[in-house]
Amino acid sequence: MCDGDTLLVIRDRLLTKVAKRNMKDIVPLAYNLRKAKGGLLTSDEIYQGMIHSYTGGNIGPISNQITRVWNRGKITQAELDTVKRLTFINNQVIDYAKTLWKAEPPKEIAQQIKEHTKGNPPQFFIYAKDKLPSQVEPANNSAMNRIMNAIPSSRIKFNKSIGRFDYRMLMNQDVEYEVFEDNPVIKSYEYWNTHQYLFNSGENTHANQEDLYIYQKIRENILTESGKDIDYVVNTLVAYLYTVCPTSTKKVLWSSFGDVIVRNLQNNIPKNTTICPICGKRFVPERKWGKYCSEDCRQKAERILDKNRKKSGASSG
Length: 317
Hints:
By secondary structure, the chain is mainly alpha-helical.
């Protein structure tokens, strides 16, 4: 599967079978596109090409329209024709920076494309683009949704004996926060999260030191651009990334503000408490039960210990 940015090569028979089935009767398209005009490659020509690339070379919206069509489940000939036309437009956009040419589709064709690309993005955009459930289409029986349902929702498996993860433990409980689209904290974070490469020197000889510099600068930039106190910034980002974007990676958050988050955790955990190794309950230890929260847990621990001793004795004998 390839989305233009990432290529995933796998040897899964089921996925290969699904891919072959969905590619049945799909053939390469043949059409004539304009070629770049000949001429001297000057600095001005390169500059103009870069301008056109940034202003007219974005294939993302068109690719998302194609995704909407494929997500309809059973594809009719009219929808297949729409995919062909959008692919044609996409190829124009890809070459636009050098050809400076894009053809406008006839009105009736443009209307057909509009009709077949209505609606929200597919369900898997929750994971691919951090969309909310209200921003995507309900899951149907399309190939992508069936593949999505076969993927575990999380790679993290929590011990059954501990409670549910509470993101509020990572926050300063005495400081307010706000989560809305135009919040300067969130806008600054999203920008620097996708522009980390601006700090990259291109050398990997001191990767740890360079990473430290990158995240320190991101932290400074977010604080400066938002003009907010660091506790407000951390609270807002924690709430945003663990509720609105729960599937997003949190590396920039933890690498840039990890010291503040750890401090919040330490402050939010009750003092002089420990975790029972049997049931996972947090408690204030009492001498009569030692490191266990109750007599029941202490006895259960002794039974486990006796069982392991008997196994060890049997194997050595």
